[in-house]
Amino acid sequence: MRYFKVFLLALTLLFCAGRLHAVKFSIGATCWYAWWSPMFKDRMLNIQRYIDKTGQEVVDTDNSTEINPSILGGPVISIGITDNLSFGSTFVYGPFYHARSEYKNFVVNDGATNTINDSMDIKKYDADSVINYRVTDFLHVFFGFKYQGYHYKGKRSQVVHTQWGDTTYSGEYSVKSNAFGTGAGIGFKVHIIENLFSIINLSGVYMRSEITARGTQVVDGTPYWFRDNDSLEFNVYGFNINPQLFYHLPSWDLTLAIGARYQYLKYYVVDTNVELEYNGSFHPDTESNSEKMMRDDYDGTTDQFWGITFAAIYSFDI
Question: Could you tell me how far CA 226 lies from the centroid of its own chain?
């Protein structure tokens, strides 16, 4: 949070200085149609990794995962504090991501087969607030605050087939992720023809992320139940590439934009915590083993987000 406090202090000082001049205000809306390869994607295909830890040999027979592209949208604002200094902020939200996975394996030791299906509905959100300084008509630099997160609820079914029959497990879970951090970058502007220009922004980002998960599972036809509370903390490093084409309509004080954005993030585990409860009792040894597996599964994972962007922005002086 200290990055956010420093950013707010700098913004307040700059805005107070800008009150000595006319301030240009812009407000509009932006929309992204984006594909997403989240950091938990591979984890969806490794649900049964713990079998290896107990010495059983597991052979993967089939696995697949799918996450649909979706639309995110939200407001965009900009305040021209001086001729060369401005503040801008964008927030987008999309509740339409859906993911599914299927994992099948064969346990050599006892001949059992496992079929696991996951289905989840995901809400994703992303916010950027930056202070921008124009060095020349061609070059600008910026730094600011970044927040991103997601929340999903999922359902899981698992069928274990053995020579003695089938056992069906069913469960539900909820996962929340929040990441806060800071970033800085450089941008290049090129005038193509009158009222038409392009801008490409390149930036790096660092965030601190926390993920919490809550889940329950029951075995059909038995009194057995299971509850799982997990949390992970990460250092996250990455970069953004954002080329855009702008067309300004001076008679309407309106600017239209179309472009693309690619975001790459890499996650490094800082801390893990697992709390497992089986039929009212806790199991510290299993928790310790699960924490190690989570670190192995998530450390070094990548999150990629890319798509097409659209925006319409109206400007006026205040």
Answer: 28
Q: What 3-state DSSP class applies to 284? A: helix
Give me the average pLDDT of each 10-residue run along the chain (318 residues). Answer: 47 50 85 92 57 53 79 94 91 89 68 80 93 95 94 86 80 90 96 94 96 82 67 95 96 95 96 76 61 81 95 91
What pLDDT sits at residue 72?
95
In angstroms, the CA 237 to CA 209 distance is 10
Quick one: tokens of 191?
A: 């005038």
- State the pLDDT at residue 4: 45
- Considering all CA atoms of the chain, what is the largest pairwise distance in Å, rounded to the nearest integer? 82
Dihedral of alpha carbons 195, 74, 24, 20, sign? negative
Terminal CA-CA length for the chain: 31
Q: Structure tokens of 246?
A: 């702008």
**Going by DSSP bridges, is the β-strand pair 254-278/281-282 parallel, antiparallel, or unpaired?**
antiparallel
Q: What's the one-letter identity of residue 98?
A: H
Instruction: Locate the DSSP E strands across the chain.
Output: 24-37, 58-67, 70-80, 85-107, 113-134, 139-162, 165-193, 196-219, 225-249, 254-278, 281-282, 302-317
Pairing of strands 85-107, 70-80: antiparallel
Provide the pLDDT for residue 246.
97
Cβ partners under 8 Å of residue 28, min gap 6: 75, 76, 77, 255, 311, 312, 313, 314
Q: How many CA atoms lie within 13 A of 311 on its CB side?
A: 26
Residue 211's CB is within 10 A of a number of other CB atoms, namely: 22
DSSP H helices, the chain, are: 2-18, 50-53, 284-298
Q: Which long-range contacts (CB under 8 A, 24 or more apart) does 244-247 make?
A: 244/198, 244/199, 244/200, 244/201, 244/309, 244/311, 245/196, 245/197, 245/198, 246/196, 246/197, 246/198, 246/199, 247/195, 247/196
Residue 49: exposed, middle, or buried by beta-carbon count in 10 A (0-12, 13-18, 19+)?
middle
